[in-house]
Amino acid sequence: MSAKSLSDIKYSVLDLATVVQGGDAADSFKKSVEVAQLAEKLGYTRYWFAEHHNMPGVASSATSILIGHIAGHTSKIRVGSGGIMLPNHAPLVVAEQFGTLASLYPGRIDLGLGRAPGTDQLTALAIRGENFNAVHNFPKDIARLQMFFSADNADSKVRAVPGEGLDIPIWVLGSSTDSAKVAAAMGLPYAFASHFAPAHFLEAIRIYRDNFRPSEYLKEPYVISCINVVAADTDAEAERLATSVKQMFKGVVTGKRQLLPPPVRSMDDVWNIYEEEAVMQMLAYSFIGSAETVKNKLTSFLELTGIDEVMATSHIFDHQSRLYSYKVFADIIRTSAYAPLS
């Protein structure tokens, strides 16, 4: 693992089209366009959406449609999935959808793939129907997608049109060591969900790098780490804004999900000691604070992990504060400077 500085890494955005209290999905989609357009101006590399279902506060269920919407409102930033939950879909349909996107927006579409349902078991049953108990082989499904994208599939009786012959990068997503083994064996880039599943992150990227096999798609291992970012003018303001994401994760821990709530002055009356411990474990890789604080934390994180790219997700209730956070974060990496958002 070679040493990297902040200027060596790429930086990107993960969006869940989060719905805030008092808002709706349509409002979230408009805000996503504004965030993506700003991210493009600030030099972010890619803008990904995550597939989730049956979650009131997450409106990114129809992931491929949102990818097209954002790609149509931007001009150069890469747009993709972080990820498509492959057991929910037939590989051929995914190939056709992303082949369509790549035909509309050449050279800009990423296909990140996960093997979790992205929801609860009852909803997964509703999505998969009679296929719920079918055996899903994640590596084989990825290989089918690669086959559908290959020009060599032209003589097959089943073809992806559009999709065939197109260069659509495939990423393996994961929150455990199992996905690291898949990415390494197939020679594919690896994106880890360290923003909510930090426990196995360091072990997973070690396994990925140690076992990586170069492929026609990738010669050396490449790691994206997704992190929570809340940046503001001061540490105190960032901590205040971050009470929204802490309340959101409390809903995950307790099973009482809600729309993203506004910040509160203190979390003391919101959670108990056990909920706090569980939430803070999930938020271990969170970068909350002023530009200087976030820069110092990010520098240490990079020294520890040697990641190639960082993907920021920012669950911030106030839209202007969210935009500002992405501006500060980009400035930290681009120039190590900090300037007001004009």
Largest sheet: 8 strands, parallel, barrel
Query: How are the strands of the largest sheet arranged?
Result: 1-2-3-4-5-6-7-9
What is the helical fraction, as a range of percent? Answer: 40-55%
**Quaternary state, please?**
single chain
| SSE series | EHEHEHEHHEHEHEHHHEHEH
Radius of gyration over all CA atoms, rounded? 19 Å
Query: How would you state the average pLDDT, rounded?
Result: 91
- Globally, the shape reads globular
Structural class: alpha/beta
At CATH level 2, the architecture of one domain is: Alpha-Beta Barrel
Query: N- to C-terminal separation?
Result: 38 Å
Q: Count the DSSP helices.
A: 12
Strand tally is 9
CATH class of one domain: Alpha Beta
Instruction: Please name the CATH topology of one domain.
Output: TIM Barrel
**CATH homologous superfamily designation of one domain:** Luciferase-like domain
Which percent range describes the beta-strand content?
5-15%
Low-confidence segments, ≥5 residues, pLDDT <50?
Answer: 337-342
What labels describe this entry?
342 residues, alpha/beta, TIM Barrel, eight-stranded parallel β-barrel, globular
In short:
The chain is an alpha/beta fold and 342 residues long. The protein has helices at 25-41, 63-72, 91-104, 121-128, 138-149, 177-186, 201-211, 235-241, 243-254, 273-282, 291-305, 319-334; strands at residues 10-15, 46-49, 78-85, 109-114, 170-174, 190-192, 223-231, 286-289, 309-313.
